[in-house]
Amino acid sequence: CQTYEMHCIPLALCLMISLLCEGSAAQGTGVVGAESKTIHIARTDRIPIMDGRLGEVVWSQATVVEDLHQISPTEYSDASVYTQVRLLYTDDALYVGAQLSDNEPDEMTAKIMRQGESLFGDDMFGVILDPFHDRRNGYRFEVNCNGIRSEILYQNTNQQQRDWEGIWQAAAQQNEQGCSVEMRIPFKTLSFDPDNDVWGINFMRYVPRKSEWIGWVSRNRRLRSNDICEF
Question: In angstroms, what CA-CA distances link 15 with 12, 18, 32, 72, 103?
Fold first, then answer.
């Protein structure tokens, strides 16, 4: 399969919207990065404005994830750029914010301008969700530094529906550090079992000029998460 797909298939995922999330990355490998991970996602009644900026007070109350690592070319090595992910949820939606920092922000690529196009070739950030926690089906939501959205529906582990069009919002703003992005993913956009309190999640970033893939949990140079999260 193409390089773009190879690093993005969600072989196993996990998250729960409320939340306590714990899991492991590459258990038993004995390498840096193969540690258990736990996050608790903050609930809020305040709705962030989707403008690509993370300066609102509500984002200061978010759960913060910073321990992303390089997936490719060298898995579990330190990423060459810093990424901070922020997470919130309301009764209606999951909110994801990310600061994509770069020590050469002017070199970041943002060429794609049409909604729905593949963002491969641009600097971009994505989140992968597995609402049924079956490690076979899920969703991928991506955004570049122009605020252009792309989404993929996963079915039966490796089938990808790129023509799926979910209803969600995203925005981005370029800044002195790189760019910041925001996502709002309504729960009504997702298929899930309301009695199931375990989902899957992973985060991803691509730096095209370095051919570098960055993720939160991975194994064998593929995005992966075994997190367990409870309401």
Answer: 11, 9, 22, 23, 31
Nearest to 191 by CA among 230, 134, 229: 134
Phi, psi of 80 (to 5 degrees): -80, -15
Beta strands per DSSP E along the chain: 20-24, 36-39, 42-43, 63-65, 69-72, 83-89, 93-101, 124-129, 138-144, 149-155, 159-161, 169-175, 178-186, 201-207, 212-215, 218-219, 222-223, 228-230
CA distance 206 to 144: 10
Residue with tokens 């939606």: 93
Residue 215 sits at φ, ψ, to 5 deg, of -150, 170
Q: What is the pLDDT of residues 179-215, one digit of tens each?
A: 999 999 999 998 887 777 667 788 999 999 999 999 9
3-state helix, strand, coil in the chain (%, to 5): 5, 40, 50
Counting as low any pLDDT under 70, the low residues of the chain are: 1-38, 157-159, 161, 197-198, 220-231
